[in-house]
Amino acid sequence: MRDRTSTETARPGSARRSRHRLVAATAVLALGALGACSNGGASDASYGQEVAQDDAYAPDPWPYAPTEPQEEYDDSPEQPFQDVATSPLSTFASDVDTASYSNLRRQLTQGTQPQGVRIEELVNYFDYDYPAPAPDAEDPFTVTTQVADAPWDPDHQLAMIGVQATDAVPTSRGNNVVFLLDVSGSMDEPDKLPLLARSFELLVEQLDEDDTVSIVTYAGSDTVLADSVPGSERRTLVGILRELSAGGSTGGARGLETAYELATKNFVEGGNNRVILATDGDFNVGPSTPEQLTDLIEEHARTGVHISVLGFGMGNLKDSTMEAIADHGNGNYAYIDTLDEARKVLVDEFDSTMFVVAQDLKLQVELNPATVSQYRLLGYDNRRLEDEDFDDDTKDAGDVGAGHSVTAFYELVPAGREDGSGDDLDYQDRKTRGSDDFLTVHVRYKDPGATESTEVVVPAGADAYTRSPGADFRFASAVAEFGLVASGSAYADGADPGRARDRAAEALGEDPYGLRSEFVGLIERYEQVAG
Fold first, then answer.
1. What mean pLDDT is predicted for residues 280-301?
2. pTM of the entire structure?
Protein backbone atom coordinates (compact mmCIF):
# COMPACT_ATOMS: atom_id res chain seq x y z
CA MET A 1 0.00 0.00 0.00
CA ARG A 2 1.35 3.38 -0.93
CA ASP A 3 2.34 5.86 1.78
CA ARG A 4 -0.68 7.89 2.92
CA THR A 5 0.98 10.06 5.58
CA SER A 6 -0.17 13.21 3.82
CA THR A 7 -3.75 11.98 3.92
CA GLU A 8 -3.66 11.57 7.66
CA THR A 9 -2.70 15.19 8.20
CA ALA A 10 -4.97 16.75 5.57
CA ARG A 11 -7.99 18.84 6.42
CA PRO A 12 -11.37 17.05 6.52
CA GLY A 13 -12.59 15.73 3.22
CA SER A 14 -9.26 16.23 1.46
CA ALA A 15 -9.06 12.54 0.66
CA ARG A 16 -12.10 13.12 -1.48
CA ARG A 17 -10.95 16.47 -2.82
CA SER A 18 -7.59 15.42 -4.23
CA ARG A 19 -9.12 14.35 -7.52
CA HIS A 20 -8.64 15.48 -11.08
CA ARG A 21 -10.85 18.44 -11.85
CA LEU A 22 -14.09 17.47 -13.53
CA VAL A 23 -15.12 19.90 -16.22
CA ALA A 24 -18.30 21.77 -15.48
CA ALA A 25 -21.82 21.33 -16.77
CA THR A 26 -22.42 19.39 -19.96
CA ALA A 27 -18.74 18.85 -20.78
CA VAL A 28 -18.47 16.53 -17.78
CA LEU A 29 -21.54 14.68 -18.86
CA ALA A 30 -19.85 13.27 -21.96
CA LEU A 31 -18.74 9.70 -21.64
CA GLY A 32 -15.06 10.50 -21.80
CA ALA A 33 -13.22 7.26 -21.73
CA LEU A 34 -15.44 4.68 -23.34
CA GLY A 35 -14.00 4.80 -26.82
CA ALA A 36 -10.65 3.13 -26.53
CA CYS A 37 -10.03 -0.08 -24.64
CA SER A 38 -6.82 -1.59 -25.92
CA ASN A 39 -6.31 -5.33 -25.71
CA GLY A 40 -2.57 -5.26 -26.15
CA GLY A 41 0.04 -5.55 -23.40
CA ALA A 42 1.83 -2.39 -22.28
CA SER A 43 4.39 -1.26 -19.77
CA ASP A 44 3.30 0.75 -16.71
CA ALA A 45 4.57 3.92 -18.40
CA SER A 46 2.58 3.41 -21.61
CA TYR A 47 -0.46 2.55 -19.55
CA GLY A 48 -0.39 6.00 -17.94
CA GLN A 49 -0.15 7.60 -21.38
CA GLU A 50 -3.16 5.64 -22.61
CA VAL A 51 -5.30 6.84 -19.72
CA ALA A 52 -4.43 10.44 -20.56
CA GLN A 53 -5.43 9.83 -24.16
CA ASP A 54 -8.71 8.28 -23.07
CA ASP A 55 -9.53 11.38 -21.03
CA ALA A 56 -9.19 13.50 -24.14
CA TYR A 57 -11.67 11.36 -26.08
CA ALA A 58 -15.23 12.59 -25.74
CA PRO A 59 -17.82 11.06 -28.08
CA ASP A 60 -21.44 12.09 -28.11
CA PRO A 61 -22.99 11.17 -24.76
CA TRP A 62 -24.64 7.77 -24.38
CA PRO A 63 -25.21 6.72 -28.00
CA TYR A 64 -25.92 3.16 -26.85
CA ALA A 65 -29.15 3.80 -24.95
CA PRO A 66 -31.40 0.71 -25.11
CA THR A 67 -34.85 1.08 -26.59
CA GLU A 68 -36.62 -0.90 -23.84
CA PRO A 69 -34.87 -0.34 -20.52
CA GLN A 70 -35.57 -2.85 -17.77
CA GLU A 71 -33.85 -1.24 -14.83
CA GLU A 72 -34.88 -2.09 -11.27
CA TYR A 73 -34.89 0.30 -8.31
CA ASP A 74 -35.84 0.05 -4.66
CA ASP A 75 -39.35 1.31 -3.96
CA SER A 76 -39.13 1.94 -0.21
CA PRO A 77 -41.79 4.51 0.78
CA GLU A 78 -40.60 7.91 1.94
CA GLN A 79 -41.21 8.97 5.51
CA PRO A 80 -44.30 11.11 6.16
CA PHE A 81 -44.34 13.82 8.80
CA GLN A 82 -44.19 12.39 12.31
CA ASP A 83 -45.78 13.89 15.41
CA VAL A 84 -43.12 14.55 18.04
CA ALA A 85 -45.61 13.94 20.85
CA THR A 86 -46.16 10.33 19.76
CA SER A 87 -42.94 9.58 17.81
CA PRO A 88 -40.11 11.62 19.33
CA LEU A 89 -37.34 9.36 18.01
CA SER A 90 -36.02 8.94 14.47
CA THR A 91 -33.48 6.16 13.90
CA PHE A 92 -31.52 5.30 10.76
CA ALA A 93 -28.30 3.70 9.59
CA SER A 94 -25.59 5.87 8.10
CA ASP A 95 -25.19 5.75 4.33
CA VAL A 96 -22.15 6.88 2.35
CA ASP A 97 -23.26 5.45 -0.99
CA THR A 98 -23.16 7.86 -3.92
CA ALA A 99 -24.50 5.71 -6.76
CA SER A 100 -27.77 7.59 -7.10
CA TYR A 101 -26.05 10.85 -8.06
CA SER A 102 -23.88 9.49 -10.86
CA ASN A 103 -26.77 7.33 -12.09
CA LEU A 104 -28.99 10.42 -12.19
CA ARG A 105 -26.26 12.20 -14.15
CA ARG A 106 -26.20 9.34 -16.64
CA GLN A 107 -29.98 9.34 -17.02
CA LEU A 108 -30.18 13.09 -17.58
CA THR A 109 -27.35 12.90 -20.09
CA GLN A 110 -29.29 10.16 -21.82
CA GLY A 111 -32.31 12.50 -21.91
CA THR A 112 -34.59 10.41 -19.69
CA GLN A 113 -36.48 11.20 -16.52
CA PRO A 114 -34.42 10.01 -13.55
CA GLN A 115 -35.35 6.86 -11.65
CA GLY A 116 -34.03 5.55 -8.36
CA VAL A 117 -33.29 9.00 -6.92
CA ARG A 118 -32.16 8.72 -3.30
CA ILE A 119 -31.91 12.15 -1.75
CA GLU A 120 -29.27 11.20 0.81
CA GLU A 121 -26.94 9.89 -1.92
CA LEU A 122 -27.29 13.11 -3.88
CA VAL A 123 -26.42 15.15 -0.80
CA ASN A 124 -23.58 12.87 0.28
CA TYR A 125 -21.93 12.94 -3.15
CA PHE A 126 -20.39 16.30 -2.24
CA ASP A 127 -17.78 17.42 0.29
CA TYR A 128 -18.70 19.73 3.14
CA ASP A 129 -16.26 21.55 5.35
CA TYR A 130 -17.26 19.99 8.66
CA PRO A 131 -14.64 20.19 11.42
CA ALA A 132 -12.49 17.09 11.66
CA PRO A 133 -11.78 15.27 14.92
CA ALA A 134 -8.50 16.12 16.60
CA PRO A 135 -5.70 13.54 16.19
CA ASP A 136 -6.10 12.47 19.82
CA ALA A 137 -9.91 12.56 19.82
CA GLU A 138 -11.67 9.75 21.64
CA ASP A 139 -14.12 9.21 18.78
CA PRO A 140 -13.15 8.93 15.09
CA PHE A 141 -15.69 11.53 13.94
CA THR A 142 -17.33 14.85 14.80
CA VAL A 143 -21.01 15.76 14.73
CA THR A 144 -22.15 19.16 13.46
CA THR A 145 -25.69 20.58 13.49
CA GLN A 146 -27.30 23.67 11.98
CA VAL A 147 -30.92 24.81 11.66
CA ALA A 148 -32.32 27.40 9.23
CA ASP A 149 -35.59 28.17 7.50
CA ALA A 150 -36.65 25.63 4.89
CA PRO A 151 -36.21 27.19 1.42
CA TRP A 152 -39.35 25.54 0.03
CA ASP A 153 -41.61 26.35 3.01
CA PRO A 154 -40.97 29.52 5.07
CA ASP A 155 -43.18 28.12 7.86
CA HIS A 156 -40.89 25.11 8.26
CA GLN A 157 -37.27 24.74 9.32
CA LEU A 158 -34.49 22.55 8.02
CA ALA A 159 -32.03 20.82 10.36
CA MET A 160 -28.73 19.69 8.86
CA ILE A 161 -26.72 17.00 10.69
CA GLY A 162 -23.17 16.29 9.55
CA VAL A 163 -20.88 13.48 10.70
CA GLN A 164 -17.25 13.90 9.61
CA ALA A 165 -14.92 10.91 9.91
CA THR A 166 -11.22 11.24 10.56
CA ASP A 167 -8.88 11.17 7.58
CA ALA A 168 -6.44 8.97 9.48
CA VAL A 169 -6.22 5.50 7.95
CA PRO A 170 -6.67 2.97 10.79
CA THR A 171 -4.07 0.47 9.60
CA SER A 172 -0.74 0.35 7.80
CA ARG A 173 -1.12 -3.30 6.92
CA GLY A 174 -1.78 -4.34 3.37
CA ASN A 175 -4.89 -4.61 1.24
CA ASN A 176 -6.29 -8.03 0.48
CA VAL A 177 -8.70 -7.32 -2.36
CA VAL A 178 -10.65 -9.59 -4.66
CA PHE A 179 -11.91 -8.15 -7.93
CA LEU A 180 -15.20 -9.90 -8.68
CA LEU A 181 -16.01 -9.00 -12.28
CA ASP A 182 -19.20 -9.66 -14.20
CA VAL A 183 -18.29 -10.83 -17.73
CA SER A 184 -21.73 -12.17 -18.67
CA GLY A 185 -23.41 -11.34 -21.95
CA SER A 186 -25.27 -8.37 -20.49
CA MET A 187 -21.89 -6.66 -19.93
CA ASP A 188 -21.12 -6.65 -23.66
CA GLU A 189 -21.72 -2.93 -24.10
CA PRO A 190 -19.20 -0.08 -24.49
CA ASP A 191 -20.33 1.51 -21.22
CA LYS A 192 -19.96 -1.73 -19.27
CA LEU A 193 -17.04 -4.15 -19.61
CA PRO A 194 -14.62 -1.78 -21.40
CA LEU A 195 -15.22 0.94 -18.82
CA LEU A 196 -14.99 -1.64 -16.04
CA ALA A 197 -11.56 -2.78 -17.24
CA ARG A 198 -10.23 0.75 -17.49
CA SER A 199 -11.59 1.59 -14.04
CA PHE A 200 -9.84 -1.34 -12.40
CA GLU A 201 -6.60 -0.44 -14.16
CA LEU A 202 -6.76 2.86 -12.28
CA LEU A 203 -7.24 0.97 -9.02
CA VAL A 204 -4.29 -1.32 -9.73
CA GLU A 205 -2.08 1.77 -9.95
CA GLN A 206 -2.83 2.46 -6.26
CA LEU A 207 -1.44 -0.86 -5.04
CA ASP A 208 2.07 -2.07 -4.27
CA GLU A 209 4.02 -5.04 -2.91
CA ASP A 210 2.23 -4.93 0.47
CA ASP A 211 -1.09 -5.65 -1.23
CA THR A 212 -2.59 -8.87 -2.51
CA VAL A 213 -4.97 -9.02 -5.49
CA SER A 214 -7.17 -11.86 -6.67
CA ILE A 215 -9.42 -11.68 -9.74
CA VAL A 216 -12.59 -13.73 -10.19
CA THR A 217 -14.86 -13.46 -13.21
CA TYR A 218 -18.33 -14.90 -13.49
CA ALA A 219 -20.83 -15.56 -16.22
CA GLY A 220 -22.47 -18.97 -16.54
CA SER A 221 -19.71 -20.16 -14.21
CA ASP A 222 -16.97 -18.48 -12.20
CA THR A 223 -13.26 -18.47 -13.06
CA VAL A 224 -10.26 -17.53 -10.93
CA LEU A 225 -7.89 -15.52 -13.13
CA ALA A 226 -5.53 -14.47 -10.35
CA ASP A 227 -4.96 -15.68 -6.79
CA SER A 228 -2.97 -13.58 -4.31
CA VAL A 229 -0.88 -11.70 -6.89
CA PRO A 230 1.26 -8.95 -5.29
CA GLY A 231 -0.07 -5.49 -6.07
CA SER A 232 3.33 -4.51 -7.42
CA GLU A 233 2.85 -6.87 -10.39
CA ARG A 234 0.78 -4.28 -12.20
CA ARG A 235 1.70 -5.46 -15.68
CA THR A 236 0.29 -8.93 -14.91
CA LEU A 237 -2.91 -7.55 -13.41
CA VAL A 238 -3.49 -5.00 -16.17
CA GLY A 239 -2.86 -7.70 -18.77
CA ILE A 240 -5.63 -9.83 -17.25
CA LEU A 241 -8.03 -6.90 -17.24
CA ARG A 242 -7.36 -6.11 -20.88
CA GLU A 243 -8.12 -9.67 -21.97
CA LEU A 244 -11.63 -9.70 -20.47
CA SER A 245 -14.50 -10.51 -22.81
CA ALA A 246 -18.23 -10.85 -22.23
CA GLY A 247 -20.61 -13.72 -22.92
CA GLY A 248 -22.97 -16.16 -21.25
CA SER A 249 -25.54 -16.04 -18.46
CA THR A 250 -25.03 -14.44 -15.06
CA GLY A 251 -24.38 -16.69 -12.06
CA GLY A 252 -23.37 -14.01 -9.60
CA ALA A 253 -24.09 -15.95 -6.42
CA ARG A 254 -21.44 -18.57 -7.14
CA GLY A 255 -19.01 -15.81 -8.04
CA LEU A 256 -19.64 -14.16 -4.69
CA GLU A 257 -18.94 -17.43 -2.89
CA THR A 258 -15.65 -17.90 -4.72
CA ALA A 259 -14.59 -14.30 -4.10
CA TYR A 260 -15.28 -14.58 -0.38
CA GLU A 261 -13.40 -17.88 -0.24
CA LEU A 262 -10.32 -16.21 -1.75
CA ALA A 263 -10.62 -13.20 0.54
CA THR A 264 -10.84 -15.52 3.54
CA LYS A 265 -7.91 -17.65 2.38
CA ASN A 266 -5.69 -14.59 1.95
CA PHE A 267 -7.04 -12.75 5.01
CA VAL A 268 -4.72 -10.06 6.45
CA GLU A 269 -5.16 -9.59 10.19
CA GLY A 270 -5.60 -5.92 10.88
CA GLY A 271 -5.58 -5.12 7.16
CA ASN A 272 -8.22 -4.21 4.63
CA ASN A 273 -9.96 -7.35 3.40
CA ARG A 274 -12.46 -6.54 0.69
CA VAL A 275 -14.36 -7.92 -2.28
CA ILE A 276 -14.97 -5.36 -5.03
CA LEU A 277 -17.94 -6.45 -7.13
CA ALA A 278 -18.35 -4.80 -10.54
CA THR A 279 -21.57 -5.56 -12.42
CA ASP A 280 -24.78 -4.26 -13.90
CA GLY A 281 -26.52 -6.35 -11.26
CA ASP A 282 -28.34 -8.58 -13.74
CA PHE A 283 -27.99 -11.92 -11.91
CA ASN A 284 -30.13 -14.49 -13.74
CA VAL A 285 -28.70 -17.85 -12.65
CA GLY A 286 -29.04 -19.20 -9.11
CA PRO A 287 -29.96 -16.92 -6.19
CA SER A 288 -30.70 -13.57 -7.79
CA THR A 289 -33.20 -11.51 -5.80
CA PRO A 290 -31.91 -8.91 -3.32
CA GLU A 291 -33.28 -11.02 -0.47
CA GLN A 292 -31.54 -14.22 -1.61
CA LEU A 293 -28.24 -12.49 -2.23
CA THR A 294 -28.22 -10.60 1.05
CA ASP A 295 -28.85 -13.82 2.95
CA LEU A 296 -25.80 -15.20 1.16
CA ILE A 297 -23.44 -12.37 2.05
CA GLU A 298 -24.54 -11.50 5.59
CA GLU A 299 -22.71 -14.51 7.00
CA HIS A 300 -19.52 -13.47 5.20
CA ALA A 301 -19.83 -9.86 6.41
CA ARG A 302 -19.33 -11.05 9.99
CA THR A 303 -15.89 -12.46 9.15
CA GLY A 304 -14.28 -9.06 8.59
CA VAL A 305 -14.41 -9.16 4.79
CA HIS A 306 -16.14 -6.03 3.47
CA ILE A 307 -17.60 -5.46 0.04
CA SER A 308 -17.68 -2.54 -2.37
CA VAL A 309 -20.15 -2.63 -5.26
CA LEU A 310 -19.57 -0.76 -8.50
CA GLY A 311 -22.46 -0.46 -10.94
CA PHE A 312 -22.00 -0.09 -14.69
CA GLY A 313 -24.19 0.49 -17.71
CA MET A 314 -27.82 1.15 -18.49
CA GLY A 315 -30.93 -0.60 -19.71
CA ASN A 316 -30.91 -3.55 -17.33
CA LEU A 317 -29.20 -1.94 -14.33
CA LYS A 318 -30.34 -3.74 -11.18
CA ASP A 319 -29.76 -0.86 -8.80
CA SER A 320 -31.86 -2.36 -6.00
CA THR A 321 -29.84 -5.58 -5.99
CA MET A 322 -26.47 -3.84 -5.86
CA GLU A 323 -27.53 -1.46 -3.12
CA ALA A 324 -28.84 -4.36 -1.04
CA ILE A 325 -25.58 -6.29 -1.42
CA ALA A 326 -23.53 -3.29 -0.27
CA ASP A 327 -25.83 -2.48 2.64
CA HIS A 328 -25.86 -6.04 3.99
CA GLY A 329 -22.22 -6.77 3.22
CA ASN A 330 -20.70 -3.95 5.30
CA GLY A 331 -19.80 -2.02 2.19
CA ASN A 332 -20.53 0.87 -0.12
CA TYR A 333 -22.10 1.29 -3.53
CA ALA A 334 -21.03 3.63 -6.32
CA TYR A 335 -22.18 3.89 -9.92
CA ILE A 336 -19.48 4.41 -12.55
CA ASP A 337 -20.71 6.35 -15.57
CA THR A 338 -17.38 7.81 -16.73
CA LEU A 339 -13.68 7.21 -16.24
CA ASP A 340 -13.58 10.44 -14.22
CA GLU A 341 -16.08 8.92 -11.80
CA ALA A 342 -13.95 5.78 -11.58
CA ARG A 343 -10.95 7.93 -10.72
CA LYS A 344 -12.95 9.79 -8.08
CA VAL A 345 -14.10 6.57 -6.39
CA LEU A 346 -11.08 4.30 -6.83
CA VAL A 347 -8.19 6.76 -6.76
CA ASP A 348 -9.07 10.03 -5.08
CA GLU A 349 -11.42 8.43 -2.54
CA PHE A 350 -9.34 5.27 -2.15
CA ASP A 351 -8.99 5.63 1.62
CA SER A 352 -12.65 6.36 2.27
CA THR A 353 -13.70 3.53 -0.04
CA MET A 354 -11.30 0.95 1.39
CA PHE A 355 -10.60 1.73 5.06
CA VAL A 356 -13.41 1.64 7.64
CA VAL A 357 -12.95 3.88 10.70
CA ALA A 358 -16.43 3.53 12.23
CA GLN A 359 -18.47 0.36 11.84
CA ASP A 360 -22.25 -0.08 12.15
CA LEU A 361 -22.79 3.65 12.62
CA LYS A 362 -26.38 4.50 13.54
CA LEU A 363 -28.03 7.80 14.30
CA GLN A 364 -31.00 8.32 16.58
CA VAL A 365 -32.40 11.83 16.65
CA GLU A 366 -34.61 12.84 19.56
CA LEU A 367 -36.90 15.78 18.75
CA ASN A 368 -37.92 18.26 21.44
CA PRO A 369 -41.71 18.82 21.57
CA ALA A 370 -41.17 22.25 23.13
CA THR A 371 -39.68 23.53 19.86
CA VAL A 372 -40.75 21.01 17.20
CA SER A 373 -44.25 19.67 16.64
CA GLN A 374 -43.64 17.51 13.55
CA TYR A 375 -40.63 16.34 11.55
CA ARG A 376 -39.65 14.36 8.49
CA LEU A 377 -36.34 12.72 7.59
CA LEU A 378 -35.41 13.49 3.98
CA GLY A 379 -34.21 10.34 2.23
CA TYR A 380 -32.73 7.29 3.96
CA ASP A 381 -35.99 5.57 3.04
CA ASN A 382 -34.49 2.07 3.04
CA ARG A 383 -32.04 2.85 5.86
CA ARG A 384 -34.55 3.61 8.60
CA LEU A 385 -34.40 1.41 11.68
CA GLU A 386 -36.74 0.58 14.51
CA ASP A 387 -36.00 2.71 17.55
CA GLU A 388 -35.03 -0.34 19.61
CA ASP A 389 -32.43 -1.28 16.96
CA PHE A 390 -30.30 1.65 18.05
CA ASP A 391 -29.11 -0.12 21.21
CA ASP A 392 -28.91 -3.54 19.56
CA ASP A 393 -25.27 -4.24 18.71
CA THR A 394 -26.27 -7.23 16.60
CA LYS A 395 -28.19 -4.97 14.21
CA ASP A 396 -26.17 -4.21 11.12
CA ALA A 397 -25.80 -0.59 10.01
CA GLY A 398 -23.60 1.50 7.73
CA ASP A 399 -19.81 1.64 7.81
CA VAL A 400 -17.93 4.93 7.42
CA GLY A 401 -14.51 5.12 5.76
CA ALA A 402 -11.54 7.40 6.39
CA GLY A 403 -12.42 10.96 5.39
CA HIS A 404 -16.06 10.17 4.67
CA SER A 405 -18.82 12.49 5.78
CA VAL A 406 -22.49 11.67 6.33
CA THR A 407 -25.14 14.38 5.98
CA ALA A 408 -28.83 14.16 6.83
CA PHE A 409 -31.65 16.70 6.69
CA TYR A 410 -34.80 16.89 8.80
CA GLU A 411 -37.70 19.12 7.80
CA LEU A 412 -39.19 20.53 11.00
CA VAL A 413 -42.59 22.03 11.76
CA PRO A 414 -41.95 24.42 14.67
CA ALA A 415 -44.15 24.09 17.75
CA GLY A 416 -47.22 26.27 17.39
CA ARG A 417 -47.19 25.98 13.58
CA GLU A 418 -48.84 22.59 13.17
CA ASP A 419 -50.36 21.89 9.80
CA GLY A 420 -53.84 21.37 11.21
CA SER A 421 -53.49 17.64 11.86
CA GLY A 422 -54.47 17.11 15.47
CA ASP A 423 -53.15 20.41 16.78
CA ASP A 424 -56.32 21.22 18.78
CA LEU A 425 -56.36 18.21 21.09
CA ASP A 426 -58.14 18.98 24.35
CA TYR A 427 -56.37 16.42 26.52
CA GLN A 428 -52.76 16.62 25.45
CA ASP A 429 -50.26 19.23 26.53
CA ARG A 430 -47.38 19.36 24.06
CA LYS A 431 -45.47 22.06 25.87
CA THR A 432 -42.31 20.96 27.60
CA ARG A 433 -40.51 23.43 29.77
CA GLY A 434 -36.85 23.59 30.67
CA SER A 435 -35.19 23.21 27.22
CA ASP A 436 -35.03 25.19 24.01
CA ASP A 437 -33.02 22.56 22.13
CA PHE A 438 -34.29 21.62 18.71
CA LEU A 439 -33.11 18.04 18.95
CA THR A 440 -30.40 15.77 20.29
CA VAL A 441 -28.30 13.56 18.03
CA HIS A 442 -27.28 10.17 19.43
CA VAL A 443 -24.65 8.29 17.42
CA ARG A 444 -23.66 4.67 18.01
CA TYR A 445 -20.68 3.06 16.34
CA LYS A 446 -18.18 0.25 16.74
CA ASP A 447 -14.46 0.42 16.31
CA PRO A 448 -13.47 -1.78 13.34
CA GLY A 449 -13.70 -5.41 14.39
CA ALA A 450 -15.33 -4.64 17.77
CA THR A 451 -18.57 -6.26 18.93
CA GLU A 452 -19.70 -3.58 21.39
CA SER A 453 -20.70 -0.07 20.43
CA THR A 454 -19.97 3.36 21.86
CA GLU A 455 -22.54 6.16 22.06
CA VAL A 456 -21.91 9.84 21.35
CA VAL A 457 -24.53 12.47 22.27
CA VAL A 458 -24.66 15.94 20.67
CA PRO A 459 -27.55 18.38 21.33
CA ALA A 460 -28.63 21.00 18.81
CA GLY A 461 -29.54 23.95 21.02
CA ALA A 462 -31.18 27.24 20.20
CA ASP A 463 -27.83 28.59 18.99
CA ALA A 464 -27.90 26.03 16.14
CA TYR A 465 -30.48 28.22 14.39
CA THR A 466 -29.29 30.86 11.95
CA ARG A 467 -30.98 33.22 9.52
CA SER A 468 -27.78 33.31 7.44
CA PRO A 469 -26.64 29.73 6.83
CA GLY A 470 -23.21 29.20 5.30
CA ALA A 471 -22.36 28.06 1.79
CA ASP A 472 -22.33 24.35 2.72
CA PHE A 473 -25.85 24.50 4.19
CA ARG A 474 -27.19 26.50 1.25
CA PHE A 475 -25.62 24.19 -1.32
CA ALA A 476 -26.63 20.97 0.43
CA SER A 477 -30.18 22.24 0.93
CA ALA A 478 -30.30 23.04 -2.80
CA VAL A 479 -29.32 19.43 -3.55
CA ALA A 480 -32.03 18.22 -1.16
CA GLU A 481 -34.64 20.53 -2.72
CA PHE A 482 -33.76 19.31 -6.20
CA GLY A 483 -33.91 15.73 -4.89
CA LEU A 484 -37.46 16.27 -3.68
CA VAL A 485 -38.51 17.27 -7.18
CA ALA A 486 -36.45 14.71 -9.10
CA SER A 487 -37.64 11.84 -6.89
CA GLY A 488 -41.28 12.80 -7.30
CA SER A 489 -41.68 13.24 -3.55
CA ALA A 490 -45.20 13.58 -2.23
CA TYR A 491 -43.79 16.37 -0.04
CA ALA A 492 -42.28 18.42 -2.87
CA ASP A 493 -44.97 21.13 -2.70
CA GLY A 494 -43.12 24.41 -2.83
CA ALA A 495 -39.87 22.81 -3.98
CA ASP A 496 -38.57 24.47 -7.13
CA PRO A 497 -35.61 23.22 -9.20
CA GLY A 498 -35.02 26.74 -10.53
CA ARG A 499 -34.65 28.13 -7.02
CA ALA A 500 -32.43 25.18 -6.07
CA ARG A 501 -30.27 25.87 -9.14
CA ASP A 502 -29.89 29.55 -8.26
CA ARG A 503 -29.08 28.84 -4.61
CA ALA A 504 -26.52 26.20 -5.57
CA ALA A 505 -24.91 28.59 -8.05
CA GLU A 506 -24.57 31.19 -5.29
CA ALA A 507 -23.04 28.68 -2.87
CA LEU A 508 -20.28 27.10 -4.97
CA GLY A 509 -17.56 28.13 -2.55
CA GLU A 510 -14.04 27.34 -3.73
CA ASP A 511 -15.28 24.33 -5.78
CA PRO A 512 -11.73 23.39 -6.87
CA TYR A 513 -12.84 20.37 -8.89
CA GLY A 514 -15.99 21.74 -10.46
CA LEU A 515 -18.38 19.26 -8.85
CA ARG A 516 -20.75 21.90 -7.53
CA SER A 517 -20.71 23.71 -10.85
CA GLU A 518 -21.51 20.42 -12.55
CA PHE A 519 -24.55 20.04 -10.29
CA VAL A 520 -25.88 23.43 -11.42
CA GLY A 521 -25.58 22.17 -15.00
CA LEU A 522 -27.43 18.98 -14.07
CA ILE A 523 -30.39 20.94 -12.77
CA GLU A 524 -30.47 22.89 -16.04
CA ARG A 525 -30.42 19.60 -17.91
CA TYR A 526 -33.24 18.28 -15.72
CA GLU A 527 -35.35 21.32 -16.54
CA GLN A 528 -34.83 20.63 -20.24
CA VAL A 529 -35.70 16.93 -19.90
CA ALA A 530 -38.72 17.62 -17.69
CA GLY A 531 -39.96 20.33 -20.04
1. 71
2. 0.84
